[in-house]
Design goal:
Helices cover 65% and strands 1% of the residues. It is mostly helical. It has 2 domains: 2-201, Hypothetical protein af1432 (Orthogonal Bundle), CATH 1.10.3210; 232-334, Isoleucyl-tRNA Synthetase, Domain 1. It has a two-stranded antiparallel sheet with strand order 1-2.
């Protein structure tokens, strides 16, 4: 359309091209993600229409006079032209969230459009070396990155920030001026910081945030479930004892090569046999709440085990079995924190 053509004369960023170029990248991203979220072709087509029209209001007199209305006016114009409700609402809200106190878009399509627009901005700028440092962030990339994380966090979509960033970098393609490995490394650190800040915004205690982040941060749905479970578990009196035991297991295994396979028949003391039985219950836990409940029940048996059992004994087979038992326990701990 004429409105899309007019975007060719409006520069987004020198290396990354015009807003017409940006629109093309956002449409490509939207198509890649929409097809993973929906099998409804009409729904996908509407998402692509919203992506194509999202920036067209930038060339209108109204937005020229009142820049703060960008997106809002685009949605209003489309509404008056008879666009589908999903399309004009998505365009109207695609700049959201504009800050920590602002809500994400109210519709899934609006969230998708906002996500793709922000992804293109962040990945594109990183690809040409425009990376925030210290207090300097003239392009508000941290705010855009936080918006990406919040949308993923609140929608519960099964996308990782780095998978999304990789898709956005593919869309940037030859316009990138920095090596891909360098850009990917910078984006990894950037999104890890944004995820850590999201946990802080969500109100989790520092100990919960540190424990949960230490075992992985990219799967936000899993991270959220672990934080919720840990927050509930932190009130349990057995938590401190279990944390000490986990640390002790880590120290014992630090210089050892242990495998997860062991023959429980080799175990001889009552305390280690009880611990092996409890381990089976832990490994059978289906979700984070069940896992933490099973781990909490380990506090007593673990304390009894360490009080009674010499892990690094002289018998090679028994020593290997005990080390493998602790290795399996450590793997269970790492499912949570």
């Amino acid at each position: 359309s004429d409105r899309l053509e007019k975007l060719k004369a409006l520069t987004f960023q020198r290396e990354l091209g015009s807003y017409h170029d940006k629109t093309g990248r956002v449409v490509a991203l939207t198509k890649a993600l929409a097809t993973k979220l929906s099998t409804d072709d009409e729904h996908i087509d509407r998402a692509l229409e919203a992506a194509r029209m999202a920036k067209c209001d930038l060339r209108t007199l109204m937005v020229g006079e009142f820049p703060e209305l960008q997106g809002i006016m685009g949605g209003e114009y489309l509404k008056r032209e008879g666009a589908h409700d999903e399309v004009w609402q998505a365009v109207k809200e695609h700049y959201r969230p504009v800050g920590a106190d602002d809500a994400i878009p109210s519709t899934p399509m609006g969230c998708l459009l906002s996500l793709c627009d922000k992804l293109d901005t962040v990945a594109g700028c990183f690809a040409v070396g425009l990376i925030p440092s210290g207090s300097k962030d003239p392009l508000a990339l941290r705010r855009a990155g936080q918006g990406i994380v919040r949308i993923l966090w609140e929608q519960g979509w099964a996308f990782t920030p780095m998978d999304l960033a990789a898709a956005a970098l593919r869309a940037v393609g030859a316009k990138a001026t920095k090596p891909e490995a360098e850009t990917t490394g910078a984006l990894l650190a950037f999104f890890k910081d944004r995820v850590a800040y999201q946990l802080e915004l969500a109100g989790y205690a520092g100990s919960v945030r540190r424990s949960a982040l230490a075992t992985g941060w990219e799967d936000l749905a899993d991270l959220k479930a672990r934080c919720e479970a840990l927050s509930a578990f932190a009130e349990d009196a057995r938590f401190a004892s279990l944390a000490q035991s986990a640390k002790r297991i880590g120290n014992i295994l630090k210089d050892e090569t242990a495998c997860g396979d062991f023959d429980s028949a080799l175990l001889v003391q009552g305390e280690e046999k009880v611990l092996a039985e409890q381990l089976a219950k832990v490994e059978a836990a289906a979700d984070q709440q069940a896992l933490l409940a099973a781990l909490a029940d380990l506090a007593g048996p673990l304390e009894a085990f360490f009080n009674a059992v010499m892990v690094k004994c002289d018998d090679p087979a028994l020593r290997a079995a005990r080390l493998s038992l602790l290795h399996r326990l450590r793997q269970a701990f790492l499912r949570v924190a």
